């Protein structure tokens, strides 16, 4: 759509942007940075989630020092919802020997505020994790260039 850039050049530019995003993500993962603030979570996940037209839910797996030991997309949904399977999240956290997780999903609508269902699912997941001696550190919603943190807003897990 830009004058002077044909399909071939657009593909090259798009590929370069994707390679840059992946390189930055790999550097971040290699450093195993601490995930102690919602802003750090947003910086990691916004390149992946902020411009999607559908909802995706990811889990960040943390060790005892809240350092990132892995991340995984858990579900992909429609334009206004996605569902969680607590058993899958628990299994993956235990397999990775995580001590805590951060749940991250996006709102394509641009509103960072959690829905009633977001709050319900977060509470249920928090209870399930606690029963296995795991901790739900936070749930961050990415909405365009803004985010919402359950821990910042002190939304009760239980």
Adjacency order of strands in the biggest sheet: 2-1-3-4-5
Radius of gyration: 17 Å
Mean pLDDT reading: 87
Span between N and C termini?
50 Å
Question: Based on CA inertia axes, which overall geometry fits?
Answer: globular
Helical residues, percent: 25-40%
Given as residue ranges, the uncertain stretches (5+ residues, pLDDT < 50) are none
Number of helices: 4
Strand content: 15-25%
Written as H for each helix and E for each strand, in order along the chain, the element string is HHEEHEHEE
Main sheet specs: 5 strands, mixed
Q: Count of DSSP E strands? A: 5
Structural class: alpha+beta
Describe this structure in words.
With 158 residues, the protein is α+β, with helices and mostly antiparallel strands. Helix content is 40%, strand content 23%. The protein is built from 4 helices and 5 strands; from the N terminus they run ααββαβαββ. The chain has a 5-stranded mixed β-sheet, sandwiched between helices. Strand 3, helix 4 and strand 4 (135-143) form a beta-alpha-beta unit. The longest helix has 25 residues, at 7-31. The protein is globular, with a radius of gyration of 17 Å.
């Amino acid at each position: 759509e830009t004058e002077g850039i044909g399909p071939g050049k657009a593909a090259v530019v798009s590929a370069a942007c994707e390679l840059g995003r992946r390189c930055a993500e790999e550097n971040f993962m290699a450093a195993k940075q601490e995930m102690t603030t919602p802003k750090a979570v947003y910086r990691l996940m916004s390149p992946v989630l902020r411009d999607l037209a559908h909802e995706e839910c990811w889990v960040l797996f943390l060790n005892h020092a809240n350092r990132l030991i892995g991340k995984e997309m858990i579900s992909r949904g429609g334009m206004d919802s996605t569902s969680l399977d607590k058993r899958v999240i628990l299994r993956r956290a235990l397999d990775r020997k995580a001590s805590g997780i951060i749940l991250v999903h996006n709102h394509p609508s641009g509103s960072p505020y959690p829905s009633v269902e977001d709050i319900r699912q977060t509470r249920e997941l928090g209870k399930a994790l606690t029963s296995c001696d795991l901790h739900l550190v936070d749930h961050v919603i990415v909405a365009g260039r803004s985010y919402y943190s359950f821990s910042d807003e002190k939304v009760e897990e239980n």
